[in-house]
Design goal:
The chain is mainly β and 69 residues long. Helices cover 0% and strands 65% of the residues. The protein has one domain. Strand 4 and strand 5 form a beta hairpin. The protein starts with a strand and ends with a strand.
């Protein structure tokens, strides 16, 4: 069994967007820009249990527990 920890920082940006309705039908999209960020942390244990299948494929078991939301 091997313990591990991961911290992943993510940042997202969507630019503003707008359309004009040239036909006068009343349908056009408009979005303002938006920024968001997220931090994900995780700790767990990786088990060194490997199963070799008849077709040569290998399966490995793992488990993880998330520390944050």
């Amino acid at each position: 069994m091997k313990p591990y920890a991961v911290v992943q920082l993510q940042s997202f940006h969507t630019p503003s967007y707008s359309e004009r309705d040239l036909n006068g039908g009343g349908f056009a999209l408009r979005y303002t820009e938006h920024d968001a960020s997220r931090c994900v942390d995780e700790a767990g244990a990786r088990f060194d249990i490997k199963v070799l299948l008849d077709n040569g494929m290998e399966i490995e078991a793992a488990s993880a527990h998330s520390l944050g939301a």
